[in-house]
Amino acid sequence: MKFKPEMLKAYFVCGSQDVPEGQYETVVDTAIEAGITAFQFRDKGQASTLSPIDRAAMAMKLRGRCAQAGIPFIVDDNVGLAKQVNADGIHVGQSDEKIQQVVNEVGDQMIVGLSCSNAAEVKAANTIDGIDYYGSGPIHPTGSKADADPVIGLDGLKQLVGLTKRPIVAIGGITVGDLSDVIKTGAAGSAVISMIAQSNDIAGVVKAMLEA
Predict the structure, then answer these.
(1) What is the DSSP letter of 109?
(2) What is the pTM of this model?
(3) 136 a known binding residue?
């Protein structure tokens, strides 16, 4: 699947640790039906309810759902799993597998995303060929990521957008009220976990993301 910046408009990131036990598949299905533009499989940490075997099976199942919907299925920080399920993309953080190594391994077969939270990281990433987009934030404090970088806010996001020609998706504690302000910074869209995963109106939230 060829990368397009529009894929970042309504980007849902989720793992079993982000939803009530037994609800993972249902939540992701509902989000896909509501019209998310990309899905990132990020199942990790002690709160994950999936064993390694179950994780691979679930990834394969959700990868199929994304293919049916025509949206990219992106795996967080696990090149082995991404290759195993023939994912459309891989997303890595600054402290995860080295980005150049990831690009060398899968860059011509998969979409590659990299987390960049400050000017130095963006400038360094700009020199590496094969990265499709950056995930930048956190915009606000977030409870979904224990090792989140310092908050950059919308002003920080705008600064990072100005430093690169690559599309940026905003991340970190984003609420429905932030969506249009995120787009005004020049970012391509928002990547969210709890805003969708913990919503009682997933269709409404996704609609707001698409209309921002």
Answers:
(1) T
(2) 0.96
(3) no
